[in-house]
Automatic annotation (TrEMBL):
GO terms for cellular component: mismatch repair complex. The chain holds residues 1 to 340 of 633 of the full protein. It comes from Mangrovibacterium marinum. Keywords: DNA damage, DNA repair. This is DNA mismatch repair protein MutL. Residues 210-328 form the DNA mismatch repair protein S5 domain. This protein is involved in the repair of mismatches in DNA. It is required for dam-dependent methyl-directed DNA mismatch repair. May act as a 'molecular matchmaker', a protein that promotes the formation of a stable complex between two or more DNA-binding proteins in an ATP-dependent manner without itself being part of a final effector complex.
Length: 340
């Protein structure tokens, strides 16, 4: 019998990886904006057409890329953020897997303009379905500007799976909210079909950022949380019980400036509110945890929203105690009247 096993070409491997990393236009927004943050940008503009079907454009004023790096960036497992396995236990950047750009370029038409601040000229690259169509020297602004068009052009099943524009836009807005809350000091604009959705100034603090996303009404309902232990520091805000909603949507955990989903820690917050919430309602919270990067594992899923903690139950206790203390200080009594 002849041997039958072959190594897949990179373009196919990238397309397979893309299936996990890029699920919808919102994933493209997330990956590109996270790259802009890692590049040290203080201003990021996200320009979307037709909920990302026609265009996802992300431009930043970050460090930019050299001509060689601009091409390298699209290779699989190509990253400037880690160098060796040990670095995985000390991650301070949003990215480190080196697969987002390779994935996006495998399933879309990508244009990149990038220029380093001390460089006279920039680089333009166009890649479609992992194939470089054009690379040339160009005049462009400092920083990086990505235009992603024709997403999923060669993955018909994915394209068909996309929901209505309003649903896809909602996913994009959710991603932008998470990133904007995680990085209040960064200026972020989101434009959809020429209309501004968010225009968040750089230099915000957490409270200002929360208000610019959820509206002025939330401001007097924010109760500060501030806890410092050797294991974890927690800051941010929890909402007054009377501000709780019947639906989820204003619950956010961040760890080392990264949004995370954590149903177990969510229960710690819920328990702290026990008996002071109307039934079936959810308190708002914006809790920012800082831990030593070697106590967490971010590398569980390509989208990195799941995070494993080494001392999960101890952190759980600290979260619960901090929220309880914050609520206690603000004299939130068990017998408040709920406006139902
Ligand atoms: P990762 O972020 O995991 O390193 P990506 O595929 O997202 O992988 O990006 C590959 C590399 O391209 C990054 O490590 C970075 O060096 C470079 N890069 C990507 N986006 C930008 C940007 N907006 N500004 C500067 N460099 C960037
Ligand atoms: Mg990245």
């Amino acid at each position: 019998m002849p041997d039958i096993i072959q190594l897949l070409p990179d373009s196919v491997a990238n397309q397979i990886a893309a299936g996990e990393v890029i699920q919808r236009p919102a994933s493209v927004v997330k990956e590109l904006v996270e790259n802009a943050i890692d590049a040290g940008a203080t201003q990021i503009t996200i320009n979307i057409k037709d909920a990302g079907r026609t265009l996802v454009q992300v431009s930043d004023n970050g460090c930019g890329m050299s001509e060689t790096d601009a091409r390298m960036a699209f290779e699989r497992h190509a990253t400037s953020k880690i160098r060796e396995a040990n670095d995985l236990f000390n991650i301070r950047t949003m990215g480190f897997r080196g697969e987002a750009l390779a994935s996006i370029a495998a399933i879309a038409d990508v244009e990149l303009y990038s220029k380093q601040h001390d460089s006279e000229v920039g680089t333009f690259i166009n890649i479609v379905g992992s194939r470089v169509q054009k690379q040339e020297v160009t005049q462009c602004a400092n920083g990086t500007n990505f235009l992603i068009k024709n997403l999923f052009f060669n993955v018909p099943a994915r394209r068909k799976f996309l929901k209505s524009n309003s649903t896809e836009l909602k996913h994009i807005i959710n991603e932008v909210q998470r990133i904007a809350l995680a990085n209040p000091e960064i200026g972020i604009s989101l434009i959809h079909n020429q209309d501004p959705v968010y225009e968040m100034a750089s230099g915000d603090n957490i409270r200002k950022r929360v208000v610019s996303i959820f509206g002025k009404g939330i401001n007097q309902n924010l109760i500060p949380v501030n806890t410092e232990t050797s294991l974890v520091s927690i800051k941010g805000f929890v909402g007054q019980p009377k501000y709780a909603r019947k639906t989820y949507g204003e619950q956010f955990f961040f760890v080392n400036n990264r949004f995370m989903k954590h149903p177990f820690f969510n229960r710690a917050v819920m328990q702290a509110y026990e008996k002071i919430l109307a039934p079936d309602s959810y308190p708002a919270y914006f809790l920012y945890l800082e831990v030593n990067p070697d106590c967490i594992d971010i590398n569980i899923h390509p989208t990195k929203t799941e995070i494993k903690f080494e001392n999960e139950s101890a952190v759980w206790q600290i979260i619960q105690a901090s929220v309880r203390e914050a609520l206690g200080k603000f004299n939130v009594m068990p017998s408040i009247d709920f406006d139902q």
